[in-house]
């Protein structure tokens, strides 16, 4: 199975799951007697192979006898929900290949499409591309078929939107529009280029609403090092322009609606995002980039064998039972972080979870951030800003 250049592996089978041991949730199964003995002790879990929408343009399987590849190619994400960094499933044992357009994975009911009585709605989903390839040399080197599938993916992306669909609701390239501009960030006294920022068009709403939007189309790209962007092949309609800039808290929304018409070429010029701020930053833990990857990610429980990928960038955080390690590291007293001396990559656990106190009983945990301000201005307000990567069945209190 191949999901990315890093995540490629010989997979367990459906039978291996049935003979294994179900763990804390049904999707996670400990392989106790797999057909391939090298996999014994590993955990199989379909969520290991989830991807951001932006990264799942091609994925699938290679069989050895005969040496055939079966690939799902998603040439566009315009019809998917919740933007480019929304995660969803790709592949798992079976062998199973998915192309998910709408789901509540990783987000819950916020992404469940709901309708009022009599509300009209329609949307073109797809097309997506199923690609099969074969090469005798792939029996010894499956990467041959993976590399060929990536080449085909690039061809399909370049061909989007396709010209063959005959549905009157499918908008061809000559009926679409284009939007361009340049994004800056002003977080002090001067504007700086918003490099590598996600910027896109989605149905009108408040700043950040694109993350929960599930009925319309979305069109996203990334800015270059100078903050320039071009969004192409936009279906005509009324949109808001949104952006999220790595390293800066909050969400950007352009002040005016963007009305795209057939064949339009809209140049928005220079745009400036001013992140929410009430004064100078006194201290900061982590980086506001919509991930928790900079924090401390523990090794998984030692009773589970970790699958080592050839390029081992993915195995660190996509492992079963990482949350369990908080109770091991902090069996009695909770985490205390000292601003100025603590290091968040070593001392800020990546997820705030409950503590397992035995007998299937879990208790709340209370983390402390200790900081010292040499001078306090009693006439001023001090603001604590939080950026949450995700929350599940959670209650957060800040005191």
Automatic annotation (TrEMBL):
Example GO molecular function: carbohydrate binding
UniProtKB keywords: Signal
A Pfam family hit: CBM-like
Every Rhamnogalacturonan lyase domain range: 195-267, 281-398
Protein name: Rhamnogalacturonan endolyase
Organism: Anisodus acutangulus
């Amino acid at each position: 199975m191949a999901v990315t250049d890093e995540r490629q592996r010989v997979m367990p089978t459906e039978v291996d799951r049935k003979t294994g041991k179900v763990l804390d949730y049904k999707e996670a199964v400990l392989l106790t007697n797999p057909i391939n003995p090298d996999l014994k002790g590993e955990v199989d879990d379909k969520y290991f192979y989830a991807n951001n929408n932006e990264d799942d343009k091609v994925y699938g399987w290679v069989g050895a006898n005969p040496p055939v590849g079966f690939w799902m190619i998603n040439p566009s994400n315009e019809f998917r929900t919740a933007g480019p960094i929304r995660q969803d499933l790709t592949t798992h044992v079976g062998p199973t290949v998915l192309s998910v357009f709408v789901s509540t994975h990783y987000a819950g009911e916020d992404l469940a499409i709901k309708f009022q009585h009599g509300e009209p709605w329609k949307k073109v989903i797809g097309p997506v591309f199923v690609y099969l390839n074969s090469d005798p040399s792939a029996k010894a080197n499956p990467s041959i078929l993976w590399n060929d599938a990536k080449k085909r993916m690039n061809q399909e992306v370049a061909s989007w939107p396709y010209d063959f669909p005959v549905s009157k609701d499918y908008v061809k390239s000559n009926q679409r529009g284009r939007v361009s501009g340049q994004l800056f960030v002003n977080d002090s006294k001067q504007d700086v280029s918003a490099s590598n920022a996600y910027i896109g068009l989605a149905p009108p709403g408040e700043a950040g609403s694109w993350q929960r939007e599930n009925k319309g189309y979305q069109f996203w790209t990334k800015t270059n090092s100078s903050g320039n962007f071009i969004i192409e092949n936009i279906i005509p309609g009324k949109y808001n322009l949104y952006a999220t800039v790595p390293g800066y808290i909050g969400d950007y929304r352009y002040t005016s609606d963007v009305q795209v018409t057939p064949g339009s070429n809209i140049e928005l010029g220079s745009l400036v995002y001013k992140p929410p701020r009430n004064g100078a930053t006194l201290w900061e833990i982590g980086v506001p980039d919509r991930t928790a990857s900079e924090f401390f990610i523990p090794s998984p429980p030692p009773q589970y064998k970790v699958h080592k990928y050839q390029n081992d960038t993915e195995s660190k955080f996509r492992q079963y039972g990482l949350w369990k390690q908080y109770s091991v590291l902090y069996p009695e007293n909770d985490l205390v972080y000292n601003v100025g001396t603590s290091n968040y990559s070593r001392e800020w656990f990546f997820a705030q979870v409950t503590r397992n106190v035995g007998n299937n009983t879990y208790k709340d945990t209370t983390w402390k951030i200790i900081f010292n301000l040499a001078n306090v201005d009693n006439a001023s307000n001090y603001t604590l800003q939080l950026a949450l990567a995700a929350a599940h069945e959670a209650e957060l209190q800040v005191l």
